[in-house]
Amino acid sequence: MSTEESRHVYRLHSTLELPLEDLREHIEEATYPDGVADVEITRRNNTLILKAVATDESVSKYTPTAQLKASVTENRVYEEDPDERRNSFRWDEEEEEEIESELVEFAAFKGDRETVLQNSLLQYQMFLVLCGIAEAAEKGTLTAISERDGDLEATRIVEGEPRPADIEVVEGPREHQSGQGGVNWRDNKFISD
């Protein structure tokens, strides 16, 4: 058995969104997990790549390390909720003032593991970086199943707050003895002729 502990990310789903400025600030101030010296942020059009820089200098610069991928979108952010303001001033529509707003760029880490977390070298460590981002994000959810030294761990972070999570093992689909599997579409009461 090797002395290096085994770590894997099996399932991951993310709907995280946070202002690009907040993300950059978080990455600058973050403490990285063992094995990660730094995280480089690269932007190509509307795609943001956060790439792990390995502390192990024997890793070739051509070896792809784990990276997080986000899309960049622009959202209008209002000083106050426009619906609340509109409802409270219904009687005074003629004199309604323009609500202060600005366009803000957001980084959206949305999708499953292959979309958000790519490459295997330092993958678990970059998953930990993503968990830190999830705790800094006020919008979205991160759910994952990972393994550390043979033990499965469930992760669930909702709108910046870590929440309890369990892993449920369920029996997968099995072939019936007759060799017929799946749904019998011809004899299904939920489908009408």
From TrEMBL:
Species annotation = Natronorubrum halalkaliphilum
From the broadest rank down, the organism's phylogenetic lineage runs: Archaea, Methanobacteriati, Methanobacteriota, Stenosarchaea group, Halobacteria
Start and end residues of each stretch annotated as Disordered: 172-193
Please state what the protein is called: Uncharacterized protein
